[in-house]
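Appendix B. Chain record.
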Amino acid sequence: MQATVQAAVHAEDGAAVPESQTGTLVIGIGNSLFGDDGAGIHVIETLARQSLPEDVEVIDGGTLSFTLLERVENAARLIVVDAAQLDAEPGTVRVFHDADMDDFLNGSQRPSVHEVNLMDVLVGARLRGRMPKRYSLIGIQPLSLDWSATPTPVVAEAVERAAGIIRNLVEETP
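Structure tokens predicted for this chain:
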């Protein structure tokens, strides 16, 4: 797997501005010390051991922050994977694309800290006119958020399914 290096030009204010949005950025978010909350990180670890197209960058976003804004803005496609309150059976995996992702994040009755920070990053990209053209959220329903460095067995199975979904998404023709 090889990261794409972005060329940049400078705006009138001297800030670096990417020439174009390219490639796919896959961000896993969560806290891997709280059991199933780290599902997104575990998916990223699984993907990092696999062969993916060269234009795919896979990163551990931890609990997410504005430090990822520029990377999000440089991507033509964004895929985020995280534990999410889906009001479903533990281990359920759901995929939200584009406007459906926006609706899910905006309509969440109990947004996690990750979802709030993710919404902030997406709003920042939109305000700057640099939102990726395509974006998706892969949500995994957690069972336990207790202190543990490993997910529960049901979420560990979901991690594998989510990794497969992401592999299929990144191999799709744009």
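Further analysis of this model is presented in Appendix C.
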